[in-house]
Specification:
Layout: H1 2-17, E1 21-28, E2 31-34, E3 40-45, E4 52-53, E5 58-62, H2 65-87, H3 101-124, E6 126-128, E7 133-138, E8 145-146, E9 163-166, E10 171-178, E11 190-195, E12 200-209, E13 215-217, E14 220-229, E15 242-247
Antiparallel strand pairs: 1-10, 1-15, 2-9, 3-5, 3-8, 4-7, 5-6, 7-9, 10-14, 11-12, 11-15, 12-14, 13-14
């Protein structure tokens, strides 16, 4: 409600100066939500808010990782045995009795498929940084039970990511412009952006693109216009926050 009132206040201020303002929402803030892909108990959280991390760095693990890793090692050992058995078929004197080449090949294929499944299971028990960035929040701790895809305590209905990683300080806003107001919005035009929830106002931006096809809104036909905020911003707002974009005229 406070955000809406702030946007309304901005409309009034813009109208008084002859400018145009369009409501929208932050659609990208360079923040990636990271979660486990497997349900389990958290074993380690190896990062903290404010820490810089690099692509590929392991940020958290579940308790079942050691056991799952042992299974992967057993799979790899079995494949080694399979490959050694297949190699014997190249020497007539070493060919195993009662085992056909097709059977040996099938066993190798089966064990390789099982290895892939077990490796995927291990990967799902780890959170790895997909790109370099800075940790902005850690919402879990060792000993907590989490479900696949999101950090949900089994005794709670709340759902938040285990780790939030900021990969960029660039952000953008998507606004809906009525068809009869498109003359006020041109690609490349400079604008000013306000995001009340982040206490931001007067942030310089640029109209990035205008789609050729309108969409139907509650106010009639309009265009979804993307407004970019260039440069590295010190404290970007989060995706979904209400924003207002002011044009020069």
């Amino acid at each position: 409600m406070a955000a809406c009132l702030s946007v309304l206040a901005l409309y009034v201020a813009v109208a008084a100066t002859g400018g145009r303002s369009f409501a929208g929402a932050v659609t990208s803030s360079g923040v990636v939500d990271l979660n486990f892909a497997r349900t389990g108990q958290v074993a380690t959280i190896s990062v903290h808010a404010g820490q810089n991390v690099t692509s590929g760095q392991v940020l958290a693990t579940e308790a079942a990782v050691p056991a799952a890793t042992a299974v992967v090692a057993a799979d790899q050992a079995a494949i080694g045995v399979d490959e050694a058995a297949l190699a014997q078929f190249g020497n007539q004197s070493l060919q195993p009795e009662g085992v056909s080449l097709a059977t040996a090949q099938a066993k190798l294929a089966k064990d390789k498929a099982q290895l892939a499944l077990d490796q995927a299971a291990v990967a799902g028990m780890r959170i790895v940084a997909p790109v370099s960035g800075s940790v902005i929040a850690v919402n879990s701790q060792a000993g907590e039970t989490v479900t696949a895809g999101s950090q949900i305590n089994v005794t709670s209905a709340s759902s938040v990511p285990v780790i939030m990683l900021r990969t960029s300080r660039n952000w953008q806003v998507e606004i809906t412009v009525p068809a009869n107001s498109m003359g006020a919005v041109e690609p490349g035009a400079a604008v000013r952006i306000a995001v009340p929830a982040s206490h931001l106002s007067g942030v310089p931006g640029r109209v990035e693109g205008v789609p050729p096809t309108p969409v139907r809104t509650s106010q009639g036909l309009g265009y979804e216009v993307l407004v970019a905020v260039p440069g590295d911003q010190p404290d970007p707002p989060l995706t979904g926050m209400v924003a207002a974009v002011q044009t020069a005229s």
